[in-house]
Fold this sequence. Notes:
The longest helix has 39 residues, at 188-226. The protein has 332 residues and is an all-alpha fold. It has helices spanning 2-28, 35-40, 45-55, 61-74, 90-125, 130-144, 147-167, 188-226, 229-236, 241-269, 273-279, 284-293, 297-325, 327-331. It is built from 14 helices and no strands.
Amino acid sequence: MLRYIVRRVLVAIPLLIVASILTFALTTAMGDPLSEWKSLRPRSPAEVASEYHRIGWDRSPEQRYIDWAEGFVTGDWGTTITPGSGTLAVRGEIGRALGVTLNLVIVAELLALLIGMAVGALGAVRQYSLFDYGATGVAFVMFSMPLFCVAVILKFGGIQLNNWLENLGLGRWIITAGPPQSGFGGGFGHLIYQYTGAYVLPVLSLIAIQFALFSRYQRASMLDALNADYVRTARAKGLSSARVVIRHALRNGLIPVVTVFALDLSLLVGGAVITETVFGWRGMGALIVDAITKREPWMVQGWMMVTAIVIIGANLIADLVYAYLDPRIRLG
């Protein structure tokens, strides 16, 4: 197993190098980062040259890449470069945004995975039952609805619930404009009240879509496993139905779901842009939109590299889970 892990890590290193080169090429293709600043009013050549020197744009692309790559590895990811607006550390901003997105995405993905696995597995065991038809119908409805539509509907429902609670004199519970910048405060009970009010709508919007995806993959995978020869052999040995389903069919049926979960989680960490926009969360999605709009090359490069690391890391973890679920993978 250790040899398998080392081999997968060594494969990930050249992938990150290629990702860094592609990231730098894409941000360079964004164009002149000072074009908007120069268009505001006439600038003297000396002033323009000074700004280009400040942001390091007076060097060759090759030298800029080497300097940026060395800084990224050592933890110096640069600062924002927009003139006159102050500078922000790229690493600090990405860390803050990543924390916001992780708090939102991990809770939603884990709940969607657990619910989807349970519903999909039960639907496969009770194929063509009323429960199976109902779960399939709900999943197809969720598949057909765009995420922004689900989010807007939930936000409208949250506003109506707040109005109803306010009429009862209970105050507004649902937070529809993102968590407070100053954080949550108060006693334990009040903290729970605030956290649930801030998280319930964005988490539900992500669960609604992701649950449908996980449940359909789990159902299809479980049906294949239940019809496999090793499951029929386990039944013939006299094992109980629960043991056959959980120890044999479910374990092997998890592999496709693990694949989808790893890819989905890594992509959402890159920015659940629609959910964050609708509910006012300042996470990775909002950060990359602002960075591209302002042509902040170091911010875009840092964001893309962190996202690439998360995607490669999630796939590495998925490979390790495969090897645990099916020993033939690590021995092959």
